[in-house]
Fold each of these.
Amino acid sequence: MSIQRNGAILLGRNFVADGHYDRPFRVITHFHTDHIGEIGKSVRECLSVIGTRSTLRLLNVLGYNVPEDKSMPLPYGQKIEVEEERLFLERADHVIGSSQVVLETKGGTRIVYTGDFKSPGNRTPILPSDILVMEATYGHPNMRRPFKEQVISTFLDRVNNALAAGPIRVFGYHGKIQEAMAIMRKGGVDAPFVVGGKVAKFTEVAMQEGLNIDQILVDDSPEATEVLRSGWYVRFSHFNEFRSRRTNQVNFLLSGWEFDSPLKKVDEKSYVVAFSDHADFDELVEYVSASKPALLVTDGSRSKYARDLANYIRRTLGIRAVPMPI
């Protein structure tokens, strides 16, 4: 295997993941932009584009058309075999539909590509491997969240306090927004949720794919109009809209780049929530330690910390580790 500069993860002779390359099959671990590069080229040149059904559906919601004749939805654990290479997907806790990729070569080598993940050993199964290809988003030893177990309870407490005084607005990326919705509902937040645009379409598919959310109102519907007048609701918007936030309501920005506290105040009405969909440094090390690969390859095409992580693993676990591309 190898990692190309365009982010393509080459697996065996027949497969490439999360980037385009001249291989018969392209695997997409999830729908985030840095993992779907040159997807149009793959649709034209590859035999099939492989992903979970949720991932392939959500790509189409985001405007990336994968025609049915090129689309290969693959349930977790179901193997496909091409020229004596076997490939299957396993669950990854990152966003809805995320997957890890496992390739078993003709010679018996087991290559595991984690894709993006968090919660190893819990919602993300740790897979044994001969070669482990790992994300390194938070691959620097300073990127630890000792408070991560407190984030959800702190967020829910502040949300409920804010709703007692009026409406609130939550900003985040696709996937993270829907996860926050499910967490809020499970945590007892019962105010109506108001959505619009791609967030609305994305949420609809996420619910169809099994995410447990209810009381969703689309912002141009009569029901939403009434709720907006009432002044008791949670509105969800894309991360990029945070800069134009209104200051007459409480705002929450879901960010993976907060390492100091569960919740940080940025102005009188706005907070950054340390709500990450990536493993922190300790969780990355935990996965490697339990997977026990003969070789670790850290993904330097998407993170500048791939070398830091590889060096740490070599030094502390005694496992051969290299960043790619070099």
Amino acid sequence: MRFLMAIVMAMANLAKGLWNGAEWCWRNSWGLLGFGGSPTVMPPKQLDLPDTDEVEIVRDTVRNQQRAIDAMLSTPARKVQAWAAALPEQRDTIPLSGLTDDQIDWLEIRLTDEQLEILAAEKSEHKVNAALAGIEDAILGVPSVPSHSMKKKSRPSIDISDRIHRFRFADAEHQPRQLH
């Protein structure tokens, strides 16, 4: 019985080998005759690359845009005005480097939307710098940055009459000059 099983298995393997060989011959014979059957390599497509002049124009445009952005954000006052003019979702893209923590707190937390509009519309960079420095009423309708340094330097209040008295009698201690 084992002998018969071995013969049947050998015949099955032979049939399978013959079938695979015939299939290989069939595929390759059609490919050799030029009717297909074997994959062919497609010629490469012509790439539609932009002209080098166009590339240079785009590069120059990008450089000029970057220069304009750098000029717009070159001073703290310009940064503050750009931040105030930006939409709320775009404000994170504007760097606030060069500003103190008090100035950033003033800009982001203390000012209302109406005050930010007034700040963005301000034409004088000098007034924005004054507001950043803590000078009161630098921009009408916008409070200035609160100055902590003035609170730390608590000067004794001098009455105006004391100042006038000292001014008038500053020379009283000296003898008047006599002319000969």
Amino acid sequence: MYALLALLFLHEPTDSFSRFLAYLRQLPVTSRAAEVRRYLDGKSTPLIESDTVVHFVHLGMASTVLINGDLQSGWSQPDTMKAIPCGETALFYWSTAVPRDARVDYQFIVDGETITDPRNPRITPSGFGPHSELAMPGFRSSPWLESRAGVGRGSVDTLRWVPRDTTIKPRNIIVYRPAGYDKLSKLPSVYVHDGLEANDFGKFSVVLDNLIAAERIPPILAVLIPPVERQDEYVWSKYRQFRSALCDDLVPMIDGRYRTARVPGKRGMMGISNGGHISLVTVLRRTDLFLNVAGQSSTITLQLLEATDAALGKSVPKGLRVYTDVGVFDLAGQGDPTYSFLNTNRGYRDELRTRGVEHRYREFNDGHEWANWRERTAEILEFWWGKND
């Protein structure tokens, strides 16, 4: 009988995971593990059907397996994977539908231990260790993220920045100089928060090398700034002091050492999450220094709305260019079930629209991840300073 079941299954279309589960449940428990291994042989996970249906699977010895990730309300509500006993092991699975162009991160929690998906070779970086990646068939990665042969490489300097305000702690910053720097002058400059991660996880220098070589943007200088007290500097108790230190200490230091353009239209600031918040607050408060800003998955607060009102209350500063984006599967919950980054960023988009700001707003079927944000680096820089617009 079971041989007949196997024969029938093998002659059915093999794209239905549900059909396989029904077949598996009819087998003796002790025969199931071998059949699961045979079914998964040569396949990477998650399993994708019809371009939109996804099955996350894990075969192992465990009592409970959870899945957590961007699809779980932005990592806030892990789902328990269903289990089919397979002798000494079990097949755990969780199925859902997602847009065909989605790209999200996830992890398994196996009896309390967080791991990446052992059957998924796609690993993405994050500030919290490696994640597994689901990339749907319609997802297309930016062509600017991979190093290209024959492209001139920029160089980097490490500088010690010691703010005059002693409440803001000293730190080392990285400065990217474009290829051929010694023959250049009046360079646009971009100040990047979470700058070391932007370079390591976001491939920032690679994107700059490629865009400059392709003449999509002019050669630019990038100032990559790491946080020390991230929450306080970017959002809470020290954001005013940090903003002042950036504008009154760091910008003059960079302009004094490098061949930068000394006009606000040639300066930009960008960041992700809380780094997007400090970027928006800083630029809107200091349009005498910056006229280009980008916030990705930005934290939206009352102080940002106040800064927006102060900067745009009577008129929009000429030349101001604002870019914001957010993931459809971005952070949610955060102690308040009604809160989500998607909704707050949509609200901020509407605020900018009503004020007539030159503003590019984008939503993506993605989450709160470096593997999301790095996809947009080229678009941001071209929006500010693109030579082919």
